[in-house]
Amino acid sequence: MAAFARPFVYTASMIFPEILRVVAPPLPGHLAQWQIAAAYAVFAVSYVVFALGKLPGMKIDRPGMAIVGAVMMVAFGVVPAGQALRFVDFGTLVLLFSMMLVVGCLHLSGFFDWIASLAVERLHPRSLLPAVVFLTGALSAFFVNDIVCLAMVPLTLRAARRMGLKPLPYLLAVATASNIGSVATITGNPQNMMIGSFSGIGYRAFLAHLGPVALIGLALDWMIVRWIFGPAVLESVPAAAEAMPPIRARDLRKPVIVIALVLGGFLAGFPPAMTAAVGAALMLITRTREPRLVYDEVDWGVLVFFIGLFLIVGGAEEAGLTQQLFDVAGRLNLAHAGVFTLVTAALSNLVSNVPAVMLLKPLAAGLRGAHNGWLLLAMASTLAGNLTITGSVANLIVVERARGEVHIGFWEYSRVGIPVTLATLTVGWAWLVWVR
Question: Total structural domains in the chain?
């Protein structure tokens, strides 16, 4: 990862150093006023793009803006080029990259299709909805939820066709349950990986505190979807006979053994990043699969986004943003768990959950009972993803994967997403306040 980050970190320092020294040398041990202003401007523009998804009038998306913002922080001397890598949390990057490789290998081997077919393909229609909710949630708790959605959408569509059911309620269940289930562990989603690295909370402790939130949340998700759609959950349409693609047992043997070892390592208390890295290395030792196919499963844009975001937020902290946030937090009473939960949920929907976590991490660490602050941040930033159709990448994956057969519009999603979000956030807040 260091080699991956170094090109754009050092390019700016090669172009601009003499200009920076001549035009406005920094004060000894401090940034000059113009550098502080530049850092705040870069930070503000970057977060506007994170909120909008693209820079208006340009073809710059979130990862692109993360690169541009990181380069500008170095170019303006806010982040010293020689020290830039100290702002990057490599534990988070290693864990995220390794889990992408592990889950990618599982996906290619048919592991998720096999698990889902065992649970879904042989069910009675009345049992399909709870099976989809709890299976999606359970898989999302231990694997990156985006990949789980990639596997669950086609299988859910196939099961609905076979049973002669309308697929919309079940697809919404996949989207919402994937977000709820992913709150349970450090490896459920990227923001939890980041929080686990920053906070030092162990895998088992994280699961013990947020696992009950996920379990209760999944039950609420099932009840809310069932209540909103009512009899339409079992409304009949012409059934279609469709067989599952064959899955060879020998293709599953190694992935199942490796993932069992990785999950065992997590629960045994080994460092998550190293455990996942060992699992990824074992997955790549193969005689049958082209490594390129596994690399294609990695979301390189997310890794680029993380690296740039570390430098942007690091530069803003160097310019005094952290102190400004603490001042704002004092005025808004963000030390109160309920207020902090609401602010985290709102910001996660405004700028996306990963940038929100990066922005709020100094506040989580500074709250009374920092352990609980980190857990509140993980809970609220994850469950807030169910509020709207654009609230999380998992939601968008479900919408895009189902587009050929089912149209999921903003209102179709929101009528489920809004009550699910409000109910689960309330449960999560109450649980963490009680167990504190």
Answer: 2
